[in-house]
Amino acid sequence: MWQLLKRAEIPLRVGAILAAVYLGYVFLARHTTDQRWADGQKRAESAPDPKSQATYGGTGLKILQFYAREGTITEDQGTVICYGVLNANSVRIEPPVEGVYPAFNKCVAIQPEHETKYTLTAEGSDGQTATAAFTVAVKPDVASLPRITAFQVVKHSLELGHHYFTIAFRFENARTVSIDPPAFSTIEDSAPFGQFMVAPEATTTYTLTVVGKKGRKAQKQLTVDVPKG
Questions:
Q1: How far is residue 103's CA from residue 105's CA, in Å, rounded to a whole number?
Q2: Which of 2, 50, 160, 180 has the most crowded CB, counting CB atoms within 10 A?
């Protein structure tokens, strides 16, 4: 019986080994296929077919295209740059953009923080270069701009010959609040409203300034009329 069991183990071991070899072969074949596909994609981007090469200028260095999908974007959003070069050994974009290499037709993502001029430089095998450039404008997000929604006198009183005014204000999307002429110290990260009291000797114009992200400002003026006599 023992000998029969040992004989039965041999086919099982052989089967296990064959299965392991088969799985390894399948994994290697798939990996090789995927790598060949990726390499093929890059070659397809980099090397146009002979007809296209003849159409776009033979063997000379040439920039076929260089543009942004949107010429103007909203801050904190992005777009893509598309470019194409012919017969280039190297290519770069300034300011630097990731994923750039000689290609017949390729697009890469960008997200500039402010208006930016992008320059493409391609170099051929003979050391000759070609350049192209454009500018992407960045506009502020209107919804996030700082604004003053209220700035007014809410109370006026006369005490011992002095006029006292209570002024209230309200704002949105701001981190600091200041007043000129100074009536209080600059307020930081406060609630979006407040009030203060002044007792000017004569008619005075006060300027309220609020500052939001990226240093953007909003201002509003209020003239306090002091009655004579």
A1: 5
A2: 180
- For residue 27, give Cα distances in angstroms to 17, 32, 98, 113: 15, 9, 31, 44
Q: Both 135 and 152 in a single domain? A: no
pTM listed for this prediction: 0.61
At 198, is the secondary structure helix, strand, or coil? strand
Count of the separate structural domains present in the chain: 2
Q: Average per-residue pLDDT in the chain?
A: 84
**117-167 pLDDT per residue, tens:** 999 999 999 999 999 999 999 999 999 999 999 999 999 999 988 999 999
**Domain end point (choices 139, 163, 194):** 139
Contact predicate 99/108, CB 8 Å: yes
For residues 121 and 64, give the distance between their C-alpha atoms in angstroms, rounded to a whole number: 12
Burial label for 83, CB within 10 Å (0-12, 13-18, 19+), is buried
CATH of the domain at 193: 2.60.40.2470
Per-residue pLDDT reduced to its tens digit, 199-222: 999 999 999 999 998 899 999 999
Residues of the domain holding 71: 58-139
